[in-house]
Amino acid sequence: MAGPRSEPSPSAVDGLITKPSPHSVDVTLDRLEVALKEHGYVVFARIDHADAAASAGLRMPRATVLIFGNPRVGTPNFIQQPTLAIDLPLKALVYQDADGNVLVGYNSAKYLFETIYARHGIHGDPDAMKRAESAYDAITDTALK
């Protein structure tokens, strides 16, 4: 019989960047959406996992995924390799942990370029990866101040 399973901490998950938010889940989501739009991204959807759980009679801490992208950047990649659409558009998770802390998690640009794009045979430009990482940091830092 197996013992208790040890879950990795969010910061230990390969390619996942996790940052604490001083705001509530809803305020963090709103601030993140504004920051994304200010940087030229389109927000396509919010998926509220806690709301979906409640509709099934289950309870879980708040967890909402914000789906976003930049069609000017992404579309040429989708044309080059349509299967990329199974992994994109980009996502950010705003959630509340068991201690009530609000966190934002998203894939690093390195993970995006070296794992997701590579999975579909697209070789990313290292300079583009650096620009993307800088943009993601600026967006989340703006949303979390």
Task: Describe what is shown at a glance.
The protein is built from 5 helices and 5 strands, in the order βαβαβαββαα. By secondary structure, the protein is an alpha+beta fold.
Q: Care to describe what's here?
A:
The chain has one domain: TATA-Binding Protein (2-Layer Sandwich), CATH 3.30.310. The protein is built from five helices and five strands, in the order E-H-E-H-E-H-E-E-H-H. It has helices at 25-38, 49-55, 71-80, 109-119, 126-144; strands at residues 16-21, 42-48, 63-69, 90-96, 102-107.
List descriptors.
5 strands; TATA-Binding Protein; 23% strand; alpha+beta; five-stranded antiparallel beta sheet; 145 residues; globular
* Number of continuous helical runs: 5
Largest sheet features: 5 strands, antiparallel
Distance between the termini: 46 Å
Which structural class fits the helix and strand makeup?
A: alpha+beta
Task: Name the CATH class.
Answer: Alpha Beta
The sequence of SSEs as H and E is: EHEHEHEEHH
Which spans have pLDDT < 50 for at least 5 consecutive residues?
1-8
From the alpha carbons, calculate the radius of gyration and give it in angstroms: 16 Å
Return the CATH topology: TATA-Binding Protein
Quaternary structure of the protein: single chain
Kindly report the name of the CATH homologous superfamily.
TT1751-like domain
User: What's the β-strand tally?
Assistant: 5
Shape verdict: globular
